[in-house]
Amino acid sequence: MTGYDAVLFDNDGVLVDPPPTETQIRAARAAFESVGVDDPAREHVTGVVSGVTVDFLHEICATYDLDPQTFWTARERHDERSQLDEFRNGTRNRYDDVAAVTDLEVPCGVVSNNHHSTVEFVLDHFGLAGSFDTYYGREMTIESLELKKPNTHYLERGLADLGVGAESALYVGDSESDVIAAERAGLDSVFVRRSHCRDRDLEATPTHEVTSLHEVTRLVCD
């Protein structure tokens, strides 16, 4: 299908550079240190950076006799601060081709696994707030981990805000979880092969694959 009535976009890796792994690792170590753990196991540091589940978080915290809520609050604040610092100092930037989708004549939104407050900052910092009718990131809570993509929760909230059915909407992402979430929610999907995911093998099959957001514009307008 081409020609859509609404488009939802992922944030990191689609609109802006994804966070460098080393930055996330430093932020996670800082979070551990802030709650009194000076030498956490590497697998626990990497675990809270990528793909952490509620059960694994509780397992990690039990290892160091930490209150999960206290530690997770520290982790989220250090992670957010590290991201905002990199946007402010220019380490991370918006992609040049974002300009191609800022004037689409259909309702648009952003749905991200990143913090809602970080998405809000990005849209304001890069002058994109007026280009999107709604946006969702996850709350800084342990419970929000259950709602991350490929869960369809935030996609469905975005569609409801735009007042458009899933069958005529498109979700643009850069990960397999984006493709799966779109499929589960009933949307067509676009996988953007940026430099960080150009050679990634996908088990899920996106509706479309592109290398630039200029191609997304053509999909929407055809």
From TrEMBL:
Pfam families: HAD_2
GO MF annotations, alphabetized: phosphoglycolate phosphatase activity
InterPro entries documented for this protein: HAD-like_hydrolase_sf, HAD-like_sf, HAD-SF_hydro_IA, HAD_2, HAD_sf, PGP-like_dom2
Keyword line: Hydrolase
Domain of life: Archaea
Keyword Lyase recorded: no
GO biological process, one term: DNA repair
SUPFAM superfamilies named among the record's database cross-references: HAD-like (SSF56784)
Stored Gene3D superfamilies: HAD superfamily/HAD-like, Putative phosphatase, domain 2
PANTHER family: PHOSPHOGLYCOLATE PHOSPHATASE
Protein family per UniProt: Belongs to the HAD-like hydrolase superfamily.
Entry protein name: Hydrolase
Protein species of origin: Natronobacterium lacisalsi AJ5
